[in-house]
Amino acid sequence: MENHPISKKIHPGSTFWRFFFFLSGIVATIAYRIVPFLTPLQVKIAWYVGTVGFILYFWHRAHIETKRANLVKDHDLVNVVKESDIKSEEKSAVSYLVKTSLTSKARYNSAFIVVISILALIASIAMDLF
Predict the structure, then answer these.
(1) Residue 87 CB-density burial (10 A; 0-12 exposed, 13-18 middle, 19+ buried)
(2) Secondary structure in 3-state letters for the chain
(3) Any domain includes 82
(4) 54 is in which domain, residue-wise?
(5) What is the predicted pLDDT for the residue at 6?
(6) What is d(CA 5, CA 130) in angstroms, rounded to the nearest whole number?
(7) What per-residue confidence (pLDDT) applies to 5?
(8) In a domain, 95, yes or no
(9) Residue 13 in this model has a pLDDT that exceeds 90
């Protein structure tokens, strides 16, 4: 399976990148939440930091959720679980995880946040420059 083209899709990202995207979400959240306590210049900086952080974080989340849904679809995992010999309770749990990975709208929500954040960032830069 190591040389199979799909095996690269199944491998998780490096610990460094997973931590980077996790940290970008944390930093963005903190940046937005401290705004009421900042001076106007600090608010602008925090807003930019938060917006860029959310673009990174939610892009990553959209990518991961899409990757999971594609793996379920490409490997027909709903039927694989259905036809497996897993014990009933475990089969229900795995079936739930597989089906919701395929049907979840989280990837669309994350992608929407990325697009709106990029548009807001572009608008803000334009307003700051002109």
Answers:
(1) exposed
(2) CCCCHHHHHHCCCCHHHHHHHHHHHHHHHHHHHCHHHCCHHHHHHHHHHHHHHHHHHHHHHHHHHHHHHHHHHHCCHHHHHHCCCCCHHHHHHHHHHHHHHHHCCHHHHHHHHHHHHHHHHHHHHHHHHC
(3) no
(4) 5-67+102-129
(5) 53
(6) 48
(7) 54
(8) no
(9) no
Mean model confidence pLDDT for the chain = 92
Which amino acid would we find at residue 123?
A
Structure tokens at 50: 């938060």
Tokens representing residue 20 in the block: 């980077």
Say how many CA atoms lie within 13 Å of 104 toward its Cβ.
21
Query: What proportion of the chain, given as a percentage, has pLDDT over 90?
Result: 88
Q: What pTM was estimated for this model as a whole?
A: 0.84
Report the alpha-carbon distance of residue 111 to residue 130 in Å, rounded.
Answer: 29
Helix axes 88-103, 40-74, angle to 10 degrees: 120
